[in-house]
Amino acid sequence: MQTFSDIISGYFDPELALLVVSMVPFIELRGGVVLGAALGFHWLEALVICIVGNIIPVPFVILFGRWILDFLGQTKAFGGIVKRYKAKVLSKSDVIHKYGPWGLLLFVGIPLPGTGAWSGSVLALLMDLRMREAIPAILMGIVLAGVIMTLGSHGLLGIFEMM
Question: Exposure pattern of 60-95 as b/e (b: 16+ CB <10 Å)?
Answer without folding.
Answer: ebbeebeeebeeeeeeeeeeeebeebeeebeebbeb
